[in-house]
Design a protein that fits this description.
The chain is of the alpha+beta class. The protein has helices spanning about 25-40, 45-105, 110-130, 135-165, 170-255, 270-305, 325-335, 335-340, 350-355, 355-365, 415-420; strands at about 315, 320-325, 370, 380, 390-400, 405-410.
Length: about 425
């Protein structure tokens, strides 16, 4: 920091000792964190999986209810249809009984044809509503047999009546025979009606049972939803609320300054990952804080050593501003410490050196070394009272928290100069 080119480097650059970036306690905490992460953690469902599982369970229950309702609805529809055609058969059997009486009182082709039409309707109704594979199949087969016997009996009655008319039988004999045959037909019609009514009653009973099953299925489903949805919702909310509450408490504790606090969540879900990330962040923050405190203490010791040096000493930053100056320097140049801190170093140089000195200082800061400045040259400093004094300056560089610092020390004054002063 004076006039002249730098001489050859005789020493290597000095650096301020710095603590481990994490510090001893930081390294131990990091190892503990690694050990905790290496432990086998219980496998749990993630929040996403739990929500999907709850929705899937509700959907499954809804699908089961839907299938049950569809099955019951089809069964009820089938039973109602069976009851309707049973009513139709009852009406047709009653009509057949009435037509049989009409034929007996007013025999003729018209009454016979009407009877045949109704009988065919009964047969067609039985054929359209087959009950194959059901418990009513045998009863329906019995209805068909009864219908065929009824048709045979009516045919015999028609044939007998025609034979009697051909044989010119007495009206009393014809009437007696017809009445006997009509009684047989009526008995068969009544038997047919009883079978149809029994079938109708069973259909109505089946409808009632199907409706009860339908109501039971609905109540069961509603009960399942009432139980499953609140329980699953409670479990999901609890699995989320507990880690969130623990994380909030941990945040408050850390914000209060306790960097040793651990959330300690072992859940293998998103909140568990967040909690472990929070713990790692806290661990890193604590290590950084320890490192920063140790660095501050180290720099404080360094500053104490510099300011307590028995030789004049000045420390400048990369911008050439004075950041540390000891009492010997202040006495040598006639300044107070407050007058020098923050000033450019050129304040201590004669004006003829000030223009060139920033360039020389910049070159030194880019390629620093421990050396004597301006070796072999006569260097001078400028006191506050404008008196120039011959000096010899040693240069070195340290790395601190604020970056690279240059130290100008050993401002030794020649004996001849001392005598002159």
């Amino acid at each position: 920091m004076g006039h002249g080119e730098p001489s050859r480097f005789r020493h290597t650059r000095a650096e301020l000792p710095r603590p481990h970036p994490r510090g001893p306690s930081g390294r131990r905490a990091a190892r503990r964190g690694d050990d905790r992460r290496s432990e086998v953690e219980p496998t749990q469902m993630t929040i996403r999986a739990r929500l999907i599982g709850s929705a899937a369970l509700t959907t499954l229950l809804s699908a089961i209810l839907g299938l049950v309702l569809i099955g019951n609805a089809r069964e009820v529809t089938h039973l109602v249809d069976r009851a309707h055609w049973a009513d139709e058969l009852v009406d047709q059997a009653s009509m057949l009984s009435s037509l049989t009486y009409d034929y007996l009182t007013h025999p003729g082709d018209r009454a016979r044809d009407q009877w045949s039409i109704v009988q065919k309707r009964i047969e067609g109704t039985l054929d359209r509503h087959a009950l194959t594979g059901t418990p009513e199949e045998e009863r329906l087969a019995g209805l068909r047999r009864q219908n065929r016997r009824l048709l045979d009996a009516f045919g015999r009655m028609v044939d007998v009546r025609a034979d009697l008319e051909t044989a010119s039988a007495t009206p009393e004999a014809a009437r007696e025979l017809s009445t006997r045959l009509a009684g047989q037909i009526a008995a068969r019609i009544q038997a047919l009606e009883r079978e149809i009514i029994a079938l109708q009653e069973r259909a109505l009973q089946s409808i009632a049972r199907a409706q009860k099953r339908l109501v039971g299925s609905i109540l069961l489903f509603v009960g399942a939803l009432v139980v499953v949805i609140p329980i699953s919702g409670f479990l999901i909310v609890r699995s989320i609320a507990r880690p969130v509450a623990a994380l909030m408490r941990g945040t408050a504790v850390v914000a209060a300054g306790d960097l040793s606090h651990k959330v300690g969540t072992l859940a293998d879900d998103e909140l568990g990952e967040l909690s472990r990330a929070f713990d790692r962040m806290t661990e890193s923050l604590r290590a950084t804080t320890v490192s920063r405190d140790e660095l501050a203490r180290s720099e404080e010791r360094f500053r104490t050593l510099l300011t307590g040096s028995p030789f004049p000493l000045v420390v400048i930053d990369t911008g050439g501003r004075i950041v540390i100056v000891n009492e010997q320097t202040c006495e040598l140049f006639g300044y107070e410490e407050e007058e020098l801190i923050g000033q450019k170093l050129e304040i201590l140089l004669p004006s003829r050196f000030r223009a060139e000195h920033p360039r020389l200082r910049g070159e030194y800061m880019r390629q620093p070394s421990v050396r004597v400045m301006g070796q072999g040259r006569n260097l001078t400093g400028l006191r506050k009272d404008s008196i120039e004094i011959p000096i010899e300056i040693g240069l070195s560089v340290v790395e601190g928290a604020e970056g690279r610092l240059a130290i100008a020390n050993s401002w030794r004054i020649c004996l001849t100069s001392c005598a002159r002063l």
